[in-house]
From TrEMBL:
<feature type="domain" description="VOC">
    <location>
        <begin position="8"/>
        <end position="134"/>
    </location>
</feature>
<dbReference type="Pfam" id="PF00903">
    <property type="entry name" value="Glyoxalase"/>
</dbReference>
<dbReference type="InterPro" id="IPR037523">
    <property type="entry name" value="VOC_core"/>
</dbReference>
<dbReference type="InterPro" id="IPR004360">
    <property type="entry name" value="Glyas_Fos-R_dOase_dom"/>
</dbReference>
<dbReference type="InterPro" id="IPR052537">
    <property type="entry name" value="Extradiol_RC_dioxygenase"/>
</dbReference>
<protein>
    <submittedName>
        <fullName>VOC family protein</fullName>
    </submittedName>
</protein>
<dbReference type="InterPro" id="IPR029068">
    <property type="entry name" value="Glyas_Bleomycin-R_OHBP_Dase"/>
</dbReference>
């Protein structure tokens, strides 16, 4: 038996409201360019809008002109989607509260998650959206996941409850040490003063 090896998220498809509400939210609020439009090939009454969330992958939305926004929270029963999280730069994240407030969008305010900061709010159909901003940049040649697994190992070894900035900094130092050669025999921290 062999795995069906995933190589990333291809796309996520959501059930949206009408066409204009969907465009106004995904492009007009979250800044995702509207890149493709066609009928829903399984239901010709619906539209199928495609948006680029910033990494070239796709968020797609089924639209129906008879559906109207419904801010009631989507179900969170087992098997349901709890929320979608989108990455923001630090510069944009620091302005997110003001930008949500100017649209009258109710939100959680910033939440410290140890390795990232988050803000939560609902889309026009009640789906919880998270705006997330990592507290670190991975070293060259590494991914955020590389840093996270190393920080997790450091945290568990230390017996700490959750990942914090010290685990991230130590993980980054460890990854650089593993991946980057040096002419120095002793690469330990030293005080030159």
């Amino acid at each position: 038996m062999r795995k069906l090896q995933s190589q990333g998220v291809h796309h996520i498809t959501l059930t949206g409201a009408d066409r204009q509400t969907s465009i106004d939210f995904w492009e007009g609020t979250l800044g995702m360019p509207f890149v493709f439009d066609q009928p829903n090939l399984d239901n010709p009454r619906e539209g199928h809008l495609y948006f680029d969330p910033g990494d070239g992958r796709l968020i797609t939305v089924f639209t129906d002109e008879d559906r109207v926004p419904n801010a009631r929270r989507t179900p969170t029963d087992p098997g349901c989607v709890h929320h979608l999280a989108f990455n923001l730069s630090r510069a944009t994240f620091l302005q997110a509260v003001d930008r949500l407030n100017e649209r009258g969008i109710s939100h959680s305010g910033p939440k410290d998650r140890g390795f990232m900061d988050s803000i939560y709010f609902k889309d026009p159909m009640g789906l919880l959206i998270e705006l997330a901003c990592y507290k670190f940049e991975p070293p060259s040649g590494c991914t955020h996941a590389d840093v996270m697994i190393r920080a997790h190992q450091i945290r568990v070894h230390a017996g700490d409850y959750n990942i914090t900035e010290i685990h991230l900094a130590d993980a980054i130092e460890s990854l650089v040490s593993d991946r980057q050669n040096s002419l120095s025999v002793d690469r330990s921290a030293r005080n030159p003063y």
